[in-house]
Amino acid sequence: MTKKTPVHQVSDFDLRLLRVFKTVVECGSFSAAESVLGITRSAISLHMGDLEKRLGMRLCQRGRAGFALTDEGREVLRAGETVLAAIEGFRSEVNQMHQHLRGDLNVAIVNNLVTQPRMRITHALKAVRAEGSGVRINLSMSTPGDIERGLLDGRLHVGAVPLIAPLSGLDYSLLYEERSKLYCSHEHPLFASAATVTDAQLAQADAVVPTYRMTAKAISLHQRLNFAASATDREGIAFLILTGSYIGFLPDHYAVTWVEKGLMAPLGPGHMFFDAKLAIATRKGRRQNLILERFLDELKLTDTPASN
């Protein structure tokens, strides 16, 4: 690698290379980034080589062992994301002068909200997209902690997260309230007696427990179960339930498809349930952003029974 030298000036070319680098990291490899960037793998390799030469450091390891960031690469990625977010902030401010919607809306949500019957996020995104081709929506699925960190450091404009432990640097607005029940699959021994199952039977059955944050009520219910597996998200819980070996909690709106097909049933539905609130979060003291404000306004407009 070339001798490290300070970066005296950041050019448009440097920013373009940083965007290529960020895309490669998001895709996980040069080959996966080809279709996203619309350029060949060899061109991506040349761009990465140019960036490493200009910065005087190796950013990633690539070869038969696969793609992996170096320690310096992780630091450059973090700094690059901050720079690109600042540029987007500048563009948003210029938009205010022209009163014309143009730019990115970076949205992150927790997984499995697409089955929520009150499609507030979907309708709001549709309204923003209708503003024209100048608006680009970037939607990602992530954990609540990652979403909140992205909002605080400016990489994200808005996020949908469980309202459990609000952070002082964020504003929260109630979005949904969902109910989760305890489910088993049709291959589980408790399926036939799901409605009349006893607490003793539930305590003996192997259960899957989530590793993400939960409400106090959810924690207390999980503590009554026999912890035998864990999952990082609701989809992982559903996979394990469908093996027929585990019981676990899922939101009603997510489990309903399997229930209607006779593949799942709620266990002790009269008492084995908890409610959780989901909120839209934004950073306090954020710069005015017409696209974000339009999205938030549309969320309020869709908060009606007609949006079901």
Automatic annotation (TrEMBL):
Show the InterPro entries listed in the entry. LysR_HTH_N (IPR000847), LysR_subst-bd (IPR005119), WH-like_DNA-bd_sf (IPR036388), WH_DNA-bd_sf (IPR036390)
**Would I find Ligase among this entry's keywords?**
no
Source species, domain of life: Bacteria
Task: Enumerate the spans annotated as HTH lysR-type domain.
Answer: 13-70
Q: Which CDD domains match?
A: PBP2_LTTR_substrate (cd05466)
Q: Which PROSITE patterns match?
A: HTH_LYSR
The record ties this protein, via SUPFAM superfamilies, to:
Periplasmic binding protein-like II (SSF53850), Winged helix' DNA-binding domain (SSF46785)
Q: One GO molecular-function annotation for this sequence?
A: transcription cis-regulatory region binding
| Record key words, sorted | DNA-binding, Transcription, Transcription regulation
Identify the Pfam families for this entry: HTH_1, LysR_substrate
Family stated for the protein in its record = Belongs to the LysR transcriptional regulatory family.
Listed name of the protein: LysR family transcriptional regulator
